[in-house]
Known about the structure:
Elements: H1 3-7, H2 11-24, H3 37-58, H4 60-64, H5 68-81, H6 92-101, H7 114-129, E1 139-140, E2 150-152, E3 156-161, E4 182-188, E5 194-199, H8 201-212, H9 218-229, H10 234-250, E6 254-258
Antiparallel strand pairs: 1-6, 2-6, 3-4, 4-5
Helix pairs in contact: 6-7, 8-9, 9-10
Amino acid sequence: xxxxxxxxxxxxxxxxxxxxxxxxxxxxxxxxxxxxxxxxxxxxxxxxxxxxxxxxxxxxxxxxxxxxxxxxxxxxxxxxxxxxxxxxxxxxxxxxxxxxxxxxxxxxxxxxxxxxxxxxxxxxxxxxxxxxxxxxxxxxxxxxxxxxxxxxxxxxxxxxxxxxxxxxxxxxxxxxxxxxxxxxxxxxxxxxxxxxxxxxxxxxxxxxxxxxxxxxxxxxxxxxxxxxxxxxxxxxxxxxxxxxxxxxxxxxxxxxxxxx
Length: 260
């Protein structure tokens, strides 16, 4: 909003913008001249501390690897510059993640894995509050996973990262991407517990193909993977793939097979 358009607004609205601008960025935006600084200080601390506390609670590893000064600098930049699109507290972590994605997470002095780690931690919240259900119509939970069409849980996300985000902590701070990608499944099971599973490239490819919902049977999907790998013995891939499907089914990542 331009200074001209603000000048044309009613006085009480201009005062609100002035008040909010100072709370968000007290170092660069002056406080309203007729309000005692002690009182403004209460608002400054209340608003910032609420946001900081919620972000720190959602991104505990991110908070742990920052000292107080660097964390405060990062959160102050977010608090003062980001234009949030929602007032909902549960959407605030996504707003923070979106802010990092716009390039703020890649600024000098930040960890190179900042955005990926934040995404990994955000996924846990996203799945825990998701309204998706494991009771998907038209699924046979006891279906044959090789002869039938496997169905992926809507509460299972298969992810790929350049950094080993699940291992990052104060004692593990990589300064460059890993030699290979890190593949993970984050999922919510029938007890509403969120789990994390590191997977290999074959399992990642299998989940991608299941997710495409092409109507192919589990055996056909595994045969396709064997062909993509140029494996000399496709039956070996299918046998190993059957064990993978069974394990994913036990974890509620694969729900069963599509009913005909």
